[in-house]
Amino acid sequence: MIDRRELLKLGLAAFAGACTSSEAGNRTGRFTARPGNAKSTLAPGLHELKLDREALLHIPKNHRGAFALVLHGAGGRPDRIIRRLQDEADASGVALLAPKSKEQTWDAMRGTLGTDVLFIDDALRASFAQCAVDPAHLAIAGFSDGASYAVSLGVANGDLFSHVIAFSPGFLIPLPRTGRARFFLSHGTDDPILPIDHASRQIARELRSAGFSVALREFEGEHTIPPEVAREAFEWLVVKNFSNP
């Protein structure tokens, strides 16, 4: 397994070149699922998708199309990340899809993309078939390892995700760039696990240098998601339609 600090160094150093490179297969981190014109066929509440591994879809009562794929941190589970974010997502009417990584954390944290990208793609496809999704308010989000994965896959899938929400990410994985999603990063200034100077602050600089719109929300605290920060992120997701620069 590649050490997280080594990944941070490698990923940020290679980011600019990766934006213009091309690779074949899942190593590019590309998703093929796309939202269509499907109407919601599921009642509000929590639903388990019938897939090869666990994936939960939560639909709020006031859902109008905003949707976030949320990726748990190392050792996490779909039910835990949904419980952590549900109240704040419900307040903004955002549906949440939470898949489970095959191992303790996402495949890229072990140095290669593959099975988790395929499974997330299947979970997105199943969700889009049963839940009305507004492409202008479609996010990939995550916490810790899940946030690092979300930021990286958001760069590679800007033609699918309009927004990227990363709670305490650690690094960028160098992937070819597609489209131009908008980014919301949050990070505790006293984070002992992923220190902010070498994580979100550095990621924000690299993304801005590559031409992305980035909001960095710093807060006094450690490695966590304060409820008010989660609420701010989901409110940012559901604001009126925008035009990318």
Question: What tags apply to this protein structure?
Answer:
single chain; 245 residues; alpha/beta; Rossmann fold; 8-stranded mixed β-sheet; 32% helix; 18% strand; globular; disordered N terminus
Strand content: 15-25%
Helix content estimate: 25-40%
Q: How many separate structural domains?
A: 1
Biggest sheet architecture: 8 strands, mixed
User: How many helix segments?
Assistant: 6
Taking all Cα atoms into account, the compactness measure Rg is: 16 Å
Terminal CA distance = 38 Å
Indicate the low-confidence ranges by residue numbers: 1-25
CATH fold-level topology = Rossmann fold
Give the H and E element order.
HEEEHEHEHEEHEH
CATH superfamily: Alpha/Beta hydrolase fold, catalytic domain
For the record, what CATH class applies?
Answer: Alpha Beta
Biggest sheet strand line-up? 1-2-4-3-5-6-7-8
Mean pLDDT: 89
**Count of strand segments:** 8
Could you walk me through the main structural features you see in this protein, from its secondary elements to its overall organization?
With 245 residues, the chain is of the alpha/beta class. Helix content is 32%, strand content 18%. The protein is built from six helices and eight strands. Helix 2 crosses helix 6. The longest helix is centred in the middle third of the chain and has 16 residues. The N and C termini lie far apart (38 Å). The N terminus is likely disordered.
